Amino acid sequence: MKAHGEDDGHDGHGGHDGHGDDEAGPGTGARIPLPRASVEDGGRALPEAAPVALEHQVLTSLLGAWALAACSAQETAAVEDHLGQCEACAEEALRLREAVTLLQRPESLDLDPALRTRVLDGCLERRPPRIPVPEWATPYDAETARLDALLQDFGDAEWHAPVRLRWFEDDGTASRRTTVAGVIAHLLTVDGTVAVALGLDDPLGDITAPSRAPAVRTEAYWRASHYPPTRAVRAPWRGQGHSIVRTVAFTGDAGGMPVSYGDFELPLRDAMLDRAFECWVHAEDIAEAVDYPYEPPSARHLNGMIDLAARMLPGVLAARRRAGLAAPGDRPHLVAAGEPGRSLRLEIEGSGGGEWLIPLDSPGAVGSADHEVAHVALDGVEFCRLAAGHVPPAEAAAGQVGDREAIRDVLFAAASLSRM
């Protein structure tokens, strides 16, 4: 409906009359002009910037700004038109453009591996969680998240890329060929030892494994699969990881619950570190298989992994000695549990570094600087790769001082920590 006396703005032919758009007639309200059509909207080509006429001296002074792409459209057109005519300015422009590329170093598009930890720490400082994840479980939480981020963009070809798992066994190298999906299946089954200890479902389900040993569980899972593992294994592995972290947060336990690995046990807090370590090691195996860079864990988490290995070394040394794989030493000094004994100083340099005194003659002895007979220096990441069986013991130590036999035994014991 229209108000009384209102003009409808149309002529008798149904179109605009062409005269009432710019001024209002008697009794007619002011018109709102229609929006002006844009060149881009009409599909027409944008007008080219015409070069302005500038003197040679002015054009020369603009070369630096042109190299930095800081000139206006007209100035850019003028400079580029001039460069086609002046050889001296063209050479100077080329030199400046090459210099500009040196001002900004190319940066990797990969996210900093510590970014997730920094973001979470920042968030938690502002709003602490009602039920926090225990400190001893955060390395596992971080490493599973990092590996999952690596996997998320994999296509079928990457999931079936061949991967060779390597470890140290019987004082020699051992390996097993599988695929990226097979590695995730391996992590799923071995993480399942922690899940079972926490009362969660065993990923093996109805599959029967002769023992809880990690390699035995993995082989049983692989054999029971009708087809080689595919990308479908990612969801249960990631879901199990979330369940483990959530459950340990609710337990309120200090991490002392035993987790069985078949022929040995670890307290829950150490088992979580062990699983974080293996997740990182196998993530590197996967990244190497698909030719993708992968960074080590954060220094804090790496330090925890090194500390776990250092604490396990005396027991491994004793087991190797019982098996005849390690010499008793020229002057063994057996002492009662809790007493100081012959020791090797393990110095870890770089990220996650520190110093550990390793008792040599008895797993119950206490490392002592007064009884130090040898000193070994290693890079932190290199030590972890030794403990993963990826570096031969004879090639690992950067610095060695003291009892050579003790040094050899400790390096071989570190490599013996590895397994499939």
From TrEMBL:
Q: Which residues form a coiled coil?
A: none
**Ranges for domain Putative zinc-finger:** 60-90
Locate the region Disordered. Answer: 1-42
InterPro entries named among the record's database cross-references: Anti_sigma_zinc_sf, DinB/YfiT-like, MDMPI_metal-binding, Znf_put
Instruction: Cite the entry's keywords alphabetically.
Output: Transcription, Transcription regulation
> What superkingdom does the record give?
Bacteria
GO molecular function per UniProt: metal ion binding
Q: Where is the composition biased (Basic and acidic residues)?
A: 1-22
Q: Domain Mycothiol-dependent maleylpyruvate isomerase metal-binding, which positions?
A: 141-287
Pfam families listed in its UniProt record: MDMPI_N, zf-HC2
Q: What is this protein called?
A: MDMPI N domain containing protein
**Species of origin:** Streptomyces tendae
